[in-house]
Amino acid sequence: MTTNFPTLLIHNLQQMKLKNLTITLFTLGITVVAGTTAAEAASFKVIADGLNNPRNLDFDREGNIYVTESGFGGDGSDGRCIPSPSAAYIPLCAGQNGSLIKIAKDGTRTNILSGLTSLALSPSGEQAAGPADFKFDSRGNAYLLTGLAGNPNQRDTVLRSPDLGKLYKVDLNTGGLTTLADFAAYEALNNPDGSDIISNPYAFAIKGNNAFVVDGGGNTLYSVGLDGSGIQNVAALPTKLIAPDKLQFPTLPEGSVDPTEGAPLPPGYTSGSNGLPVSNQSVPTGIAVAPDGSLTISEYTYFPYPEGEARIFSVNPDNLEIETLADGFTQLTGVTYDPEGNLYALQHINVSEWKAIQQGGIITGDISGSVIKIGADGTRSTIWSGDGLEAASGITYGPDGNLYISNRARLAGTGQIIRINPRSEQVPEPATIAGTLIAAAFGKAAMAKKRKHEALAKAEMV
Predict the structure, then answer these.
(1) 427: DSSP letter
(2) What 8-state DSSP symbol labels residue 111?
């Protein structure tokens, strides 16, 4: 783990007049103590609270935050419900409460877009799909992504929600939306990964004149022209084959009936413990542009969400060739980079989801998540775990050098935007500070001695 040397200490040291070694070492001893106490611990702050399934966010040029709220769905009274394909067939019902909000530097909130379609588990409002991500391009143009989390063939008919599962260009002055890509329709017609037909666009990144969109339902990556040229390319994320007998499954309550029992399994599925289906699908959830121009993608993994099996991928944006960059994570929901090239990966929950929270938002365990820093040399360090970080989804490195995260991002009414300072995750070791300062002190003394000799030499020449 790297440590950031306090620049104030260096400045103070450079201002010292090193008259003799005794004074130098005495001053150095004081500075070492100051260095240890001045080191800054990582910090956590809630920026906004009371949100409904907050997801991804971005900053405008003035430093204001724009965040998508997927909403809390509907009550089903209008018949706009479909069975959830990933939550034990609990009804997913549509309502018009998704939004895009702006959070100013002083905390003031403004609704930029409201009344957008939200699809969520009923009646809890948990795990909503709706406004999923928002980004500005380099010219200040705005774009909005909407999710779906269900069978795309039922979007326009049963749900009567044709605005789901799409990428839009947004006119922030009028609120107008121009469709750039329809991922739900593409999934219904082509099913790129060859498994069950589900679409849930979850996040996107912009590189040049293209948006790169990950679909966590279709297990795919799309390239979309921002000039209105539509979908340019698509690639399925690689599956990870884990034998069902190597996986840990929940035990069904006594007397309950497995809803999948006796039903034919979808293509690509096998049956695990208790007959529960397991697919080995990737479920991509986050995407960022790496310093070298490649794309970095995080995955969540599929039920039963095995711990330590989530991967991070590197993708060539020109042809969407995919390779594994890192492995060994649990339920990742976002990735971002800092200017130094360090990668930050967000773990939604540190244990398999079913151990901590039940479908419908019933919390039965520890829903703590983590932020993991991966250095340019591949070294990993956890800069924050638990202690307020819970069931998070979506992470962005802000212009002020802090990480901004959508916290409690799968819950209605208790979602948050939080800020974590990632710069000082470990207090420097006193021995390390001492060694650095001693080297600086002797270097300064040597330079002063050299200048004195040069001055004497010049005087003798005169």
Answers:
(1) P
(2) E
Q: Are 55 and 131 in contact (CB under 8 A)?
A: yes
The pair of structure tokens assigned to 436 is 């650095």
Query: What count of other Cβ atoms lies within 10 Å of the Cβ of residue 343?
Result: 24
Residues 209 and 141 in one domain: yes
User: Is the whole model's pTM more than 0.85, yes or no?
Assistant: no
CB 64 within 8 A of CB 32: no
Structural domains counted in the chain: 2
Amino acid letter, residue 298: S
pLDDT tens profile 325-374? 999 999 999 999 999 999 999 999 999 999 999 988 899 999 999 999 99
Give domain status of residue 253, yes or no. no
Residue numbers of the domain that contains 35: 7-39+432-461
- Position 269 in a domain: no
In the three-class reduction of DSSP (H, G, I as helix; E, B as strand; rest coil), residue 343 is classed as: strand
> Is 130 part of a structural domain of the chain?
yes
Contact 110, 60 (CB under 8 A): no
Q: Which amino acid is at 337?
A: Y
Q: Is residue 88 part of a domain?
A: yes
Whether residues 306 and 452 fall in one domain: no
What is the rounded (10 degree) CA torsion for 244, 245, 248, 249? 60
Q: Rounded to whole angstroms, how far apart are CA atoms 155 and 265?
A: 23
pLDDT tens readout for residues 413-425: 999 999 999 875 4
